[in-house]
Structure formats: C-alpha cells, structure tokens
Hints:
This protein is mostly beta strands. The protein is built from two helices and 24 strands. The chain has a 22-stranded parallel β-sheet that branches. A two-stranded antiparallel ribbon has the order 1-2.
Amino acid sequence: PCRSDDECNSAVCDGGVCLASANVIYVALSGSGTGECTQATPCSTLAQAVQRVSVARAHVVMEHGAYVATGATTIDARVTIHANEVVLERSTNGSILDILGGDVTVLGGTVRNATGTGSADGITCANGAALRLDSVTVDGNADRGIEVRDCTLQLTRVVISNNREGGLRLIDGSAVISNAFVLSNGNSNTLNAGGIYLVPSVGGSRIEFSTFRRNAATATAAGALGCAGWAADARNNLIFGSVNTPIEVQGTSCTHSYSIVGPLNAPPGIEIRSPTLAEVAFIDPNGNSAAASHLATTSVARAAADPASATSIDFDGDTRPNPAGSRADIGADEIP
C-alpha cells in the first residue's frame, strides 16, 4: 500500500495502490505535442493530456513548472490532475481552466493571473459538473478566482487571493469549503461579496474552518461572505477586517456559529465573537498572505470551535484539534 504519489514509480497513489504508468497520462514542459502522453514521451500541455483521458487513463501527472497556455483549457471528463508545484497561466485574455462537465479533481498547483475583462476568471465550472480542489491556490485573476454556474464544488486547503472582482461566486449547485484562506479579493465596486458569494440551488452547502481577511466590496455589500438561495452552514470561521464596507457577512441563508466575525458586524448565532485585531493575534497583523494569517498562541480563536465538529487536519496538514481531545481552533490554522 502507498500513502502518497511520491512513493510510486508512476507518480500516482490512488486509494492506497500505485497505479501502473500505462494507466497515467503525463505532461512535461519539455514534452511533445503529439503521441499518447506516456511517461517516456509526455505531452507538453494540459489541454493535450485532457484529450487522451479515458476510463483506463483517468489520472494526469504534470511535471513541476509554469505552463502558459494560449487559450483556456476546457475539461469535460472524469479525471484527476496531479499538479503539485505547477503554475497554470494564459498568455491571452480570458479564463484559464473551464470545467464544462464531468468529475474533475485538481491536487495542488496554482491558477493565476488571468487577464482581460468580463471573462478573466481563474477557474470556471458549469453544466452540472463536479469540481474538487485540494491544496490549490487561485490568485491574482482579473475577474473572479472561481466562477461557478451549476456545479458541485468541494474546496479543501485552498488559498483564494487577490482576485480583482471577487474570490468565488457560485450561482446554482452547492459548495463544501473547508480549511481555506480567502484573502484580499474584490474591490470597491464589487457588488455581491468580495470574498465568497453563494447562491446554492440545493441543500448541503457549508463553509467551515476557513479564514477570511481584507476582502473588499461596495459600501452596501459584504466584504467577506454573502449568502442567498438555499441554506448553508457557516461554522468555525475567522472573518476579519473587510475593506471599503462596514459589512463583513450578509444574507440570512448562511447560519453562522462558533465563529469570529468582526470587528465590523457580527451576525446572530451560537458563540459568535467580535474581538479586536490584537485579540485575534494574526502572526502578521499587517500582512495578507496565508502565512501572515496564521495565528499566535495567544489568539482568542484557540480552542473555540464547535466541540461537536468532525475534524482531522488543518490547512497545513497538522492534526486538528491540538492537543487531541480538546476543542479545535477557529479558522484555517490549528495553532501548534
């Protein structure tokens, strides 16, 4: 049995089993634009690899490095993309990854710097697709980091940061988000919410153990989190310091509990706190990165999460709660 990809000659550990390299599609910066994308003769782009996905070959392994595509990479397949230490960018205006159907998992990597107006999202998802992002960073895109229209979305241990029009907008579908850092998204003209705006069309959405910081919106919209549509559970979150708006969270469809929301406006809910910046005790009170938004040992977020929450690890992969048997910490970071 394997526990991680790097234990396998094929670079894929799937459910504790090393896959044979014949069942994996490979991409490398030095690869070719032709052939079957084998380990010996890899493809050069993710778009080429996606064209070769089949039931027997449903995993794509990308060599470390920065890949700059000339257009959007569209995916409509059941596929898992292993993208640790990979950067995906685009040399022309428009979105970078378009999930148009299927069941797509992306493990690791960064999607960044989409340019243009109106469609320059880092990732789009539509048509009832399922999209799972694990340990992915979506940063610096000219429109939204992630734009969803009818999609089942699962985000784990992600960073959504510095996306000009907002971090994530979901219209229809559902979202389960955990251990996320949502930082410095939106601007003074963002109409819905600078960080995350959810309008799910089915039940089951939730946002938990996530940290929102310095997201921006218009003066009448939420900086951090806006909720409409079907009910969503917002639990164990650290939401602090929105920009250009006195509203941190907005919308009655999100039920907040065991969270820090402040200092601007704290919604009703079980154990909602609104402390000062000093009491929150970010590692760097003036920073806006995931590293700066970790917590010092003196933070009021320590051991303040819902004692009934099912927990295992935090954003960094550290055991949560720490120590075992205690209450977990609020936010994406479990204090060592």
